[in-house]
Amino acid sequence: MYDLVVVGAGCAGCVAAERTAGRGFKVLLLDRQSPDGLGHTWVNGVERTVFGRLGIAMPSGEETMPSPLSSRLLGPAGKRYVETTSAPTIEVRMSVFVRRLLAGAVAAGAELRGETTVERALVEKDRVSGVVTASGEEIPARAVVDASGWEAVLRHGLPESSPVPREMDEGYMVTAWREQRRLPPDEAADVPRLLGIPPGVSVSRVGWRGGYSVLMLHWDPRESELDILVGFNREEAEESAGEFVARFLAEKGIGGERVYGGGGLIPVRRSLDVLVDHGLLLTGDSACMVIPAHGSGVASSLIAGDLAARTLARCLEEGDTGRENLWEYAAAYQRGRGALMAYFDVTRGLTDNFDREDMDKLVGYVMTPGDVEAGLKAEPLGIDLTDALRRLRSLRHPLFTARFAWLASAAIALKKIYEDYPERYDPASLEQWRSRVAKARRRLEPA
Ligand SMILES: Cc1cc2nc3c(=O)[nH]c(=O)nc-3n(C[C@H](O)[C@H](O)[C@H](O)COP(=O)(O)OP(=O)(O)OC[C@H]3O[C@@H](n4cnc5c(N)ncnc54)[C@H](O)[C@@H]3O)c2cc1C
């Protein structure tokens, strides 16, 4: 019998598999893709600091793409913007990077089975005791990690008695697409004019489609490449982000050839309240671990994979993979990274609180380059002297600035509640914690 079955060989799954196998346990890593088709085919901006923190070599060469010279964040009207020149994130080609992680997992002793779709958890009494594949094969294991991304294949089939939320509000799902197109020299010169963007500068417009929405365009004249990223709420949309990109480029008369790209869904919300059950741990997108302010999930997935492996090694050693013993992982994640994600969930909620005009005020008068960088680095907003001077300009809109300040304080309050996540599993303290979160979030609802 396997000590651990990991469902999904993405960033969370590969790290969990590598670090559990590396501690001497028998690990099986399953993915529905064939081994040479693994890893998403789009570029993700990932916090640079996470690699050193986890002892993963910084992506380089084929794994990366050059960063823009500077980045502008615009409001929906597109008139005023905040500009940053630092690059706190590194642009990572996920299929190349994930295959390196996978090679590490296999070298550590994990067994990989590609082209194996998992259908559900194998449940005995109230305990996850393995997985069932689409072909009906039952694979028993002492513990299972759900690292299957936003589809969260195991969560949905858990018994009703499980404290893990089986479903989540679909309103949090964002459809996203990112691609790079290379243009021939005769078409290249015209791209900045056709798109109305300066060369070498990444321009992101937020709130352009209401609610959570972003449209990023970057023309890199060195590579003769256009980089486009689009994301918006799936619920009200009649088209996917990929369909939007195809239509947008056709309407603008942009041709060329796609050299890399793809898309899917992102669950843009703070992490699920409960991350473990008997025999089961949830990591990455399957537990909604993205930075809610902008939908980046790779760093959280890597961190969660590492934390899961640490707890698993102890629990497997002790011969106890019950909910109470696995809880250590949930507490470590929620009190650290999860608290930051809850903080940024408040900033995501700005789009529910603010209309288009407010979003323009926010970007044009209140936000500073420091705020944008902090968001990308997943650090709480800090106020330095330059920021403070910049913010003084926002006094043109005193009531609005007061609302922003109030939301910022509410974000800190929510972060503190997450830092106080129950250290041990106990239904009463969990319920108490949940009602503190619910109360803090009620204060944030639009009047
Ligand atoms: C267009 C787009 C742009 C994005 N941009 C960024 C960004 O700039 N920065 C950032 O950090 N994040 C970004 N994200 C989010 C990021 O891609 C995810 O947060 C991250 O990939 C989650 O990692 P994961 O390991 O949890 O899941 P995934 O990487 O999604 O891996 C899940 C794996 O599970 C496998 N799987 C799924 N179901 C099954 C099943 N039933 N049986 C077997 N295997 C299964 C899949 O094949 C896959 O290999 C973006 C997402 C999109 C769609």
Explain this structure:
The structure is a single chain. The protein is α/β, with parallel strands linked by helices and 447 residues long. The chain folds into three domains: 2-65 and 90-167 and 271-338, FAD/NAD(P)-binding domain (3-Layer(bba) Sandwich), CATH 3.50.50; 171-267, S-adenosylmethionine decarboxylase; 343-442, no CATH class. It is globular and about 60 Å long. The protein has helices spanning 11-21, 49-54, 94-107, 185-188, 191-195, 241-252, 298-318, 323-348, 350-353, 356-366, 369-377, 385-392, 398-419, 427-442; strands at residues 2-7, 27-30, 43-47, 64-65, 70-74, 81-84, 89-93, 111-113, 118-124, 127-133, 138-146, 173-182, 201-206, 213-220, 225-233, 257-267, 276-277, 280-282. Strands 1, 2, 8, 9, 10, 11, 17 and 18 form an eight-stranded mixed sheet that branches. It has a seven-stranded mixed sheet with strand order 6-5-13-14-15-12-16, sandwiched between helices. The model has no long low-confidence stretch (mean pLDDT 91). The protein has 14 helices and 18 strands. A hairpin with a 4-residue loop joins strand 10 (127-133) and strand 11 (138-146). Helix 1 (11-21) runs parallel beside helix 3 (94-107) and helix 8 (323-348) runs antiparallel to helix 13 (398-419). Bound molecules: flavin-adenine dinucleotide. Flavin-adenine dinucleotide (FAD) binds at residues 7-13, 30-33, 38, 40, 42, 44-46, 117-118, 147-149, 151, 153, 176-178, 263-264, 266, 284-285, 290, 295-299, 301.
